[in-house]
Structures are given as C-alpha cells and as structure tokens.
Amino acid sequence: MVLTLYKIDASPPVRAVYMTIEALNLPDVEYIDVNLLEGEHLKEQFVQMNPQHTVPTLKDDDFVIWDSHAICGYLVTQYGDNDALYPNDPKKRALVDQKLHFDSGILFPSLRGTVEPVFFWGEKQLRTENLEKIEKGYKFAESFLTTPWLAGDHVTLADICCVATISSMHEVLPIDENKYPKLSAWLARCSKENFYKKGNEGGLLQFRQLLKSKLS
Ligand SMILES: N[C@@H](CCC(=O)N[C@@H](CS)C(=O)NCC(=O)O)C(=O)O
User: Is the CB of 133 under 6 A from ligand 1?
Assistant: First the structure.
C-alpha cells in the first residue's frame, strides 16, 4: 500500500485524519500540501482526482477517497488492529456515525461559514450570526456528553472528528466553561491524548495564527 494524503495543516478535517493516523500508528504516509489560499485545489489535476476539490483527500494506491469522516472510517476498517475507534457492533457504530454526521452537518459548516469570509473574502470581523451558530453547536455538544467520550466510555472517531472542529471553534469563540462544563472538560481530556498532541496541535496553531493575521 502507498498512502498519500493531500492536505493543509490548518484544516480541521485534515487534522481529524492526522489524529486517526496517529491513533492507528500508521507508518509511511506521504503528505502533499495543497495551498487553498493560492487556489491549488481548483487546478485541473486536483479536480480530476476530487471533483469536490476539498482537503483532506486520500489516495491508497489507485483508490481515492475524500471527506475526512469517510477517510477516517476507511483507515480504521482497512488498517486498524481492532474496531475500538469505529466499532463493528451496529448500535455502537450508529452512535459514532451520529456524531460524525453532527460534525459534518452542524459543527463544521458553522465553523467554515464563520471563517471563510475572513480567510478568503477579506472580511476583518467575524459575523455575529455565524458566531451564534457556533454557540448552538456548543449547546448540542454539551447535551450529548452524558459519557466521558462522545460515543461512550472510550475514544472513538466521534471524538477525533468532533475535536478537530471544536478545538478550532474554540479559537474563534472560546468555550465558556461555566456554560459548557462538560464540553470544556471533554476538550481538556482530548488535549491530553497523544493522538491530539501529535495530530492536532501543530495545525491548530497554524489555524490560530492565520485567523489572527487575517483579522488584524
Ligand atoms: N466535509 C469535508 C469538508 C472538507 C472541507 O471543506 N475542506 C476545506 C478545507 S478546511 C476545503 O478543502 N475547502 C476548499 C473547497 O471547498 O473548495 C470533510 O470532512 O473532509
């Protein structure tokens, strides 16, 4: 197998894949930068591979797959030693999938909608209506946290994918620990994990710096 990941470190969905790679201890992944700010993702060669022109995009020999949630699930089922991160049991898996769709359908769009005008369209302020959507995501996540991890008593892809987004949202709108004690504790719990330290911290710092530079 030759795994190639098209990426940009600041991207939350890319960082979800990095964290999955770390959690699975996958060796020898080749990384190729795609500079979104320069429009490299819109070039013919990239669009031919991924018509949705998004990062992360993974190539495994001739097999191409995009969308971080699909990539992470693929990596665990294809290369994981066990199913802990993405359980085979239908009910356990459904609970993980539910949070992956929550990330895909609620969390990430609210983050992307908030930072896109700043990163790409030259706006210098975050729009209030977008920040309200982030706050709504925090409220949902707080109510979901009835267990230490998002889909039960151990780390799954639900945590990995959601923390990539939520740690980035936290840079945009800091999580108020009085309002969201469980969410805040969960973020702290995730940040102590090796997969987070190795897979998320570097790109999150780049995200922070990019946001700061674009807002100033
Ligand atoms: N649901 C996708 C979202 C991917 C996404 O929107 N990535 C952004 C970077 S954070 C991107 O590639 N934007 C360029 C574009 O959409 O043209 C995933 O989880 O992979």
Answer: no
In a shared domain, residues 53 and 140: no
Query: Considering 11, 68, 110, 168, which one is annotated as catalytic?
Result: 11
β pairing state of 29-33 and 3-7: parallel
**CATH number reported for the structural domain that contains residue 45 in this entry:** 3.40.30.10
127: CATH: 1.20.1050.10
Domain span at residue 33 reads 3-79
Give the residue whose CA is nearest to atom 18 of ligand 1. Answer: 67
Query: Which DSSP category does 158 fall into?
Result: H
Q: Give pLDDT tens digits for 5-23.
A: 999 999 999 999 999 999 9
Q: Ligand 1, closest atom to CA 42?
A: 17
CA–centroid distance, 178 to ligand 1, in Å, is 32
Is 85 a member of any domain? no
| Active-site residue, 11 included | yes
Question: What confidence tens digit (pLDDT) does each residue in 86-145 have?
Answer: 999 999 999 999 999 999 999 999 999 999 999 999 999 999 999 999 999 999 999 999
Ligand 1 centroid, distance to 131 Cα (angstroms): 19
Q: Taking Cα atoms as reference points, which of 23, 5, 13 lies closest to residue 165? A: 13
Sequence-ordered list of residues with C-beta below 8 angstroms from that of 162, at least 6 positions apart, any chain: 99, 102, 103, 107, 141, 150
